[in-house]
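REQUEST FORM: STRUCTURE PREDICTION
Request ID: SP-0412
Submitted by: Lab K.M.
Chain count: 1
Length (residues): 265
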Amino acid sequence: MPKHDLKDRLLFAYDAAAAAGRVTLEYFGRQDLEVERKADLTPVTAADRAAETELRRLIAAAYPHDAVLGEEFGETAGESGYRWILDPIDGTKSFVQGVPLYGTLVAVEQGGRGVVGVIHLPALNETVYAARGLGAHWVRGSDDPRPARVSTVRTLAQGLFLTTSVAPYGERRPVYDALVNATRLSRGWGDCYGYALVATGRAEVMVDPAMAIWDAAALQPVLEEAGGTFTDWKGEPTIHGGEGIGTNGAVLTEVLAHTRPAPLR
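STATUS: Completed
RESULT:
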């Protein structure tokens, strides 16, 4: 993808994520918000659907020949070679509880890789965004953008380990226990918020044993452009692995020593 195309799509993705985030805030904290269960038993609300509808409307107007894949409304074919991958509310369980650690994820995939990524945290008024070869950036509130960079911590023993939830580890629970024991500190600051913390140097490793592509696509360019890594549990840099590890790069080998031997789900 030419760099001007990347930059244009990145700027658009940033604005689109902010617009969708504003939609989510109209519902956030409402006591009357109805929560439904999808076929996989994950929750969905009118906020998820309204935010994705807004994203699709904006993309269709600006990039009508691009494909779109979203968590709530499936895939729309395209012919440009670019695919938008959307998660209107990453962390719906947090959202419905009134916890502000949820995000809107907007990504562009080309050639099987995430090449543009936006992690927008509406309730925190914070955004981390990147495009391949153009660096990663971080905005908090009305501040000017600053470079997003991973930490310089060199070992897990000095690091902060994050994960979304313990239950999905299942038979791979020993991996979670090992990482807790190997790190200085562990917390359950999950979903995309944890990866945003890694990309901005506030944590060293975030691990999830189960991820959909719309959970992962925006994370790869953000973490890689911030100087870190996003891989599956085998160390492959992919958004298609069904699992995820985000690190500052320096601790990746140590993390993989625990995740690579783990049995499959």
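NOTES: The chain has two domains: 3-147, 156-259.
Reviewed by: T.R.
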